[in-house]
Amino acid sequence: MLLRLDDEARQVSLGECLGRALEGHGRVYLEGELGAGKTTLSRGVLRAFGHRGAVKSPTYTLVEPYTLDGVRVHHFDLYRLGDPEELEFIGGRDLFDDDALCLVEWPSRGEGWLPVPDLRVTLSLAGTGREARLEAASERGRQVLARLAAMPELAACRRREADDAKEGEATR
Question: What is the pTM of this model?
């Protein structure tokens, strides 16, 4: 699924939709360069469960836990992770259980240690906004994508391969 996110409000809205589609469980890997909007998207996911405060990327603590309306969310930022084994020392295996929702920024830093994600979200800069590519990596991830595809609030953001081809032709 490819989505165009014209502004920060659309990024947060996608996060809220994603949170509802995840139903409080799963592993979502957030990829993209610095400033691509990984933490903004995480803020939207947390809002889906009632969080209204600030959301900071847990760059130095590696993980920020939230319990919201009975849902456990673990927001990881592995940017400063020196070695994937460090996740073992913070009790990472327990945090990735099936009863929690785990949002992982910079998952490549935990490669070889992290479990397989349900969903991989790649954010990239696109003009003045962002583009989000969502890919399922499990059956749960495919179910989440199906729920997202059915959400009318995302219809305006949907990009189709045909749209991309037309844009390519128009720039030639």
Answer: 0.86
